[in-house]
Known about the structure:
By secondary structure, the protein is mainly α. The protein folds into two domains: 1-145, no CATH class; 156-237, no CATH class. 69% of the residues lie in helices and 0% in strands. It contains eleven helices and no strands. It has helices at residues 7-14, 21-38, 45-54, 58-66, 70-92, 109-118, 122-144, 146-153, 160-173, 176-206, 223-232. The longest helix is centred in the C-terminal third of the chain and has 31 residues, at 176-206. The protein is globular, with a radius of gyration of 23 Å.
Amino acid sequence: xxxxxxxxxxxxALEKDCECPVxxxxxxxxxxxxxxxxxxxxxxxxxxMVTDKIGFCSVHAKELYRQQNRLGLALMLKTxxxxxxxxxxxxxxxxxxxxxxFKKKAEAPVVEYLNKLNDSCFICDRVDKVFDRYIATIFHLxxxxxxxxxxxxxxxxxxxxxxxxxxxxxxxxxxxxxxTEFIEMINSVYLENMKRVRDDLEWFTxxxxxxxxxxxxxxxxxxxxxTILKTNSERVE
Length: 237
């Protein structure tokens, strides 16, 4: 493949004891992207040019705030605000956009600009770009390495979102018998492990019945956060 492959992080995610290795890949990628954003890179002109223009989504702004480099974040947000103010001042000088009773209301340039800005994020863009290569790497390793295929078949399944992603993109990388085998495999792995977690969750609820007070928890103590990861692709602690 001409594009870069990310075999190490993909293999490391498959080796983790987690309910969705694809979630684990993305979470680690987000962690590294946040570290990159608040590392020495925030002083580099090419990085600041992009962060000044597009800023951060609400989720990643909160994550950046939780880190220790408050000065770095303040400097980035200050120049981002400078850019936003300058752009809005320029756009606000245009005519007011309106519409009649039977006319479709045109979007004002200021509104169009801010809507686009609100949907943009430096970290999301960075994560999405590399994450796409992670997915391509999964299919590359599945096709080329027998031990990876076995590793994937023995994982603890996938969340709803990433099971659908693998299912949808499989035909872009695989064909014929190999495609059929891959789909059959992820179907089996997904359903088997969804049922496992469902059963753990059921026992978790049964433990609240006084008749089960002295019964062992089995594997159900952390069933609720594992269920949320399976159904919502979110890790809760």
